Amino acid sequence: MSYCRQEGKDRIIFVTKEDHETPSNAELVADDPNDPYEDHGLILPNGDINWNCPCLGGMASGPCGEQFKSAFSCFHYSTEEVKGSDCVDQFRAMQECMQKYPDLYPQEEDEEEKASEGVEGAAAAATATATATATATEAALTKEEGSS
């Protein structure tokens, strides 16, 4: 005889051998073939950015999500010779926002280096780092999508 009991947050189900021999009557729901966010990675088939991609690590939904989206969109759609060179203002705004939340967005550089560089140097370094990260992320994901 099978039965179920609750222990705190856990639900324990005991089943008999006969229960296991009976075919399941569970109905499986098929994936929606029209779901635009399903198995597409960072870039959707229509070329748009998939802000729900786990590869973004939640950056699009954090406290600086709008600034991140603005900077990343600018970089993604940039047609400049040096990709993203027209996005300095957006990356600077993103960096300024991130500096307001040091616990969520820790800085990699030492405090001494930061103090010696000054605000402009730190913003330029942050922009270069963010641009390099965006380039590497997009290149890796484009390569990954091309091999699938």
Based on the model shown, name its key terms.
148 residues, mainly alpha, 7% strand
Task: Describe what this molecule looks like in 3D.
The chain has 148 residues and is mainly alpha-helical. 45% of the residues lie in helices and 7% in strands. It has a two-stranded antiparallel ribbon. Helix 2 runs antiparallel to helix 3 and helix 3 packs across helix 4.
Helix fraction, binned, reads 40-55%
Largest sheet features: 2 strands, antiparallel
Per the principal axes of the C-alpha atoms, what is the gross shape?
Answer: elongated
- Work out the helix count: 4
The largest sheet has its strands arranged as 1-2
Order of helices and strands: EEHHHH
Question: Strand share of the residues?
Answer: 5-15%
Structural class based on helices, strands and sheet pairing? mainly alpha
The count of DSSP E runs of length 2 or more, i.e. the number of strands, is 2
Low-confidence stretches: 115-120
Q: Using the CA coordinates, give the radius of gyration.
A: 23 Å
Distance between the first and last residues' Cα: 48 Å
Mean pLDDT: 76
